[in-house]
UniProtKB/TrEMBL annotation, chain A:
This protein's name: DNA primase large subunit
Annotated binding of [4Fe-4S] cluster, by residue: C292, C372, C389, C429
Biased composition (Acidic residues): 502-513
Subunit and partners: Heterodimer of a catalytic subunit PRIM1 and a regulatory subunit PRIM2, also known as the DNA primase complex. Interacts via (C-terminus) with PRIM1. Component of the alpha DNA polymerase complex (also known as the alpha DNA polymerase-primase complex) consisting of four subunits: the catalytic subunit POLA1, the regulatory subunit POLA2, and the primase complex subunits PRIM1 and PRIM2 respectively. Within the complex, POLA1 directly interacts with PRIM2.
Gene: PRIM2
Superkingdom: Eukaryota
Biological source species: Scleropages formosus (Asian bonytongue)
Keyword Magnesium carried by entry: no
From TrEMBL, chain B:
One of the record's GO molecular function terms: DNA-directed RNA polymerase activity
Record keywords: DNA replication, DNA-directed RNA polymerase, Metal-binding, Nucleotidyltransferase, Primosome, Transcription, Transferase, Zinc
Designated name of the protein: DNA primase
Family indicated by similarity: Belongs to the eukaryotic-type primase small subunit family.
Catalysed reactions, as listed in the record: ssDNA + n NTP = ssDNA/pppN(pN)n-1 hybrid + (n-1) diphosphate
Superkingdom of the organism of origin: Eukaryota
EC number(s) from the headed UniProt entry: 2.7.7.-
Statement: the UniProt record of this protein carries the keyword Zinc: yes
Alphabetical GO biological process terms: DNA replication initiation; DNA replication, synthesis of primer
Organism, scientific name: Scleropages formosus (Asian bonytongue)
Ranges for region Disordered: 363-384
Amino acid sequence: MLFGGRKKKGVENPQTELYGHCLQLYTQPPLENISLVEFEQFAVDRMKLLKTVENLGVTHIKTSEDYSKKLHAEISSLNFPHRTEVSTFIVPAVASEYEKRRKDHISHFILRLAYCQTEDLRRWFIQQEMDLFRHRFNDLSPKSKSDFLHRNSLQYETISVEEKKSLMEKLINSSYAFSGCTVEEQDFYKVPFQDALDLVRMRKVFVKDGFAYVPHQDIVTIVLNDYRTRLSKALALTARSLPVVQSDERLQPLLSHLSHAYVGQDYSIQKNIGKISLEQIDSLSTKSFPPCMRQLHKALRDSHHLRHGGRMQYGLFLKGIGLTLDQALQFWRAEFLRGKVDADKFDKAYAYSIRHMFGKEGKRTDYTPYSCMKVILSNPPSQGDHHGCPFRHSDPELLKQKLQSYKISSGGINQILELVKGMHYQLACQKYFELTHSIDDAGFSLNHPNQYFSESQKLLTGGKEVKRELDSPRRPHAAAGSENSKAPPETPSSSNRVPQEVMDDLDSFFQEE
Amino acid sequence: MAPVAEYEAACLPELLPLYYRRLFPFSQYHRWLSYGGVTKNYFQNREFSFTLKDDIYVRYQSFSNQNELEKEIQKMNPYKIDIGAVYSHRPNQHNTVKSGTFQALEKELVFDIDMTDYDDVRRCCSSADICTKCWILMTIAIRIIDRALREDFGFRHLLWVYSGRRGVHCWVCDEAARKLSVAARSAVAEYLTLVKGGEETVKKVQLSDPVHPFIKESLAVVRRYFTDYALVGQDIMGSKESMDKVVALVPDEIRKDLVAALQAEKNPTKRWEKLKVIVQQKQASSKKSYYTEEEIMLQYCYPRLDVNVSKGVNHLLKSPFSVHPKTGRISVPIDLRELGQFNPFDVPTISLICKELDRPRTAEEEEASVRERDPDGGEQRKVRDYKRTSLAKYVKLFDQFVEEMERSRKGELLRRTDLQKDF
């Protein structure tokens, strides 16, 4: 990686060619010198953009008009490039457009540095970059799209008219919103199925003999697949050369600060540790647990068992609210022994995994409690499972019954079900929070079960901690870390030489330290 | 009929040494996992893990060659053997390499289908129990998944194995399959998944227009079995209780009519016909597509994969020819040409095949053994031994599978050299 604040001077932009299109695959790292101020500004802006991408992805359907409108607005306001027709060769007509593309380029590479370090960070970064790219690509005109493919030498083999005819019915049935005549008009690309995984996964493409037959309208998927592969390889490479960058004491604190910011607070730091007794859990589960954890707790009490997915989701949550390892062992042991598991089996088969959760076994990773995103998107429950998000993974009818049993008013239930219908699961949960705590506006944006718990406790125990006002609607995560936002940053920043105002700037945005 | 030998878990420590010394097909096993020795250290970097007495679990075992594998297994006598990934380094040295560099590189694409995952739709048994009635679910699962892996994904070398207790495993051994990324594995697994949802979901299959060719093909398989399996065997329209479960899967606007119609009819098969008719009537007067019949059939019969097993490159899966410690049955390959006749209760137990070894040889066997005898006869002896037991046909099947793979690999090599000549 060729990042350094001030290296040798000169070389007026060898990158003009690189900025010939408003969209790029970031194959070449930037080579120019930039100031620390710019470095930081770019990084923070892209960070904001990616956060917006993440938030919109949760609250909106990614293909909806609303989603793309809002994302478009954010891209404009942060001065990143989007759809421009000035993509014909050499210098983009407008100077400001050049600046935008430069910013897009450089900021992407800065965040690579910050997000290459762990599997989790990489996954998050790739996911947001993918969504951003998809939006920007879809936004292009057809001409601009083919120009982009051409520039990046992305050529795919189309199938012949005869082949298309012979597969007609299957092609029609493999894609949404297709009639025979649109199939006839469109080009189909025959690519190894590995190149169109997102379509294969959703069964939105015809697959035969190891090949996916991708209609032209879905070509973005192949491009994204390609981009994802490149990016994840690049991140792995970056991670290897990271020690060099980290030895630069101007950049190191900035980068680590950036990477800490990605999902708000991760709730792995247990400030409340030991403040909860096992006897309290039953009553807390009805008062202050989010529905997903309440459901798990009930299932555990009823059947004296939880399967792996449930143990992870619930176990880490309990750890996050302050159970110590000893308490956790005692808690799970007592419950499991009431069921079919005997003490010997528990010690052999389950105790290990609980110690593992607390980072006392195996890789010794101190696992962090699952965020809402993780609960909603990964490892969906299957037969025998009680984990997942009740708003996402329940039949509406069952959800309704459950909410009734939780004594939610029928008006409230309808509001929640409406949100669920629109796939706004976190908002539905937040509505549930408001209804069960009898407040009009929760005043925070829910993105973590442990956040639900701490916010609930704050309200119920009389709000000893001052509730912060949200300073702007575009900072939905601000409140997530409100309880400790007043504390001085405890990151390695104490030993850095970055001007304090830089860190303050970052702090005011991220708020999580 | 072979002599019946009841298996008792307590005998396992006595039987295992005999099994690993005289019966386990090490030669084919090693040939399988070496894949022609094309990739350097492919066998050497493979993880094995053993479960020993008292559930002691030993991970990251690896071996330089067949002899070493044989010696170690005969020394440890594992209750269960699992196979993991091919790593960047020898797994038994994983502690000596820098953390982060020890990585799982390749593994067969595997599928694990377990009968416990069908507990909400089978009435004959629950949890670890199985019977010939519900085993049909496994037959359906194999037919559907096998077809899709071959025809849709183009894989050729699929080894289906009975797990020894309540399920089946599939090992997709094609080179392309072994090299798949985690993302690709999960995409394939999700493509193959139709039944979704846990305890909080009643209706677990939702179809929408258009119905993907893969689902159509799968439905065709389910249809072949549905009447005999679900309507007759499981009698899902037989009692009020079981019918309620079916009715719960029907859209609200149809439910009332359906309940009335079902009460008027007593014959289970006709009840199902009634359901179809009512859905069709509704369909005729509606723009919306109703796939109620199909969705119910799929929810009751469609294979339920343990997706997490398929996703991970480093996930371990019980090895073929390992013993199931609870049932004593050997994890044997399943012959798809005779899939309909496969009966898990006919699969030999370790007690049975060890007992079979004690039988006096027949004249025929004696003759064969004389012919095969040669000076350094260790290997030969073993060959003769398993042939005298009911394990023979399964080893033969395994042998054919490995051979077929070797043949196609040679063919592929020839094709490549031919191509090079063209240039």
